[in-house]
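Preliminary data (for renewal application), WQD complex.
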Amino acid sequence: MKKTVLVSGGAGFIGSHVTVELCQAGYDVVIADNMSNCDETNYKGVCAILGRQLPFEKVDFCDVAATKALFAKYHIDALIHFAAFKAVGESVEQPLMYYKNNLDSFLNVLEEARIHGANVLFSSSATVYGEPDQTPVTETSPRKPATSPYGNTKQICEDFLRDCVQAYGMHGIALRYFNPIGAHPSALIGELPRGIPNNLVPFITQTAIGKRECLNIFGDDYPTPDGTCLRDYIDITDLAKAHVCAVTRMLEGKMDEPYEIFNVGTGRPVSVLELVNSFERVNGIKLNYRIAPRRPGDVTAVWADPTLARKKLGWKAVRSVDETLASAWAWEKRLAEAAK
Ligand code: WQD
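Predicted structure:
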């Protein structure tokens, strides 16, 4: 009997890539999204990749009745929760909007998961580590006080899941992503930033395609080899496969503890300048960029120790930064074609 996974926020960047990998691994998937932060591009792309229509439900998970109805309509064996606002800067300007949306929606799905006995996989973030005292960070590295309401909602939701597991006998996994980048090799799904991209790689590709005049590199005076910040950039398809491993671990009863946390990263620190230079080399493009002042809130260096995910999930990142940057560029070119 095939197991059914509900992917909340499944029309988004990470949700759509995870949906493809889940289906190709033999799971049935229900995509639910309120479409507040994306259009149908990725949902259509997912159906094109899979060669079939997937069940799609337009649901705002802040709506208790709608969330309840969704769980009554489908038998959900596991839920992967992506549905949340995720712009760090916007969360600083509008904390109430972020706390209400990100916390209410997760509380509603947790209540239904409790009632229906569904396993819960939560989309967390390396942002919970803040500026780590030591790198690489492991899952036992301390969480630091959040530097944004967005980051705080990730920490609070991890604690929601932990406490529900302890109180109600549920099973849950939190995956702490580092920096997801790239697009599906088919170039049919990818990142769809709304407005001016906050993140580095979509700003790079939009500069390369001519949508942006110049890339600002926020600071080259950090205490790092080339002065720019270090991050752990993980290919979106590698990241998506980690979700399949985590869902399978829960559904096959292989967990060591009822609540587990895993870092999902490559374990390889890459600087901003290294990424820019790799993009130029791989794609044969000269990028227009300049050194700009530091961006407030940026951490100098954070990257993963991915040992635990390798040992327990049987997962490791396999795609190279070069392959990922080529996929990001192919996606940007496809978006430009579609916009003509
Ligand atoms: C990476 C590096 C910037 C843009 C954030 C969130 C995290 C997750 C991923 C949601 C930094 C530099 C960036 C630009 C630049 N989001 N940069 N010019 O800040 O590491 O992480 O996105 O889950 O939770 O915190 O990612 O891509 O914004 O920045 O120089 O135009 O690129 O200074 O050093 P970040 P990022």
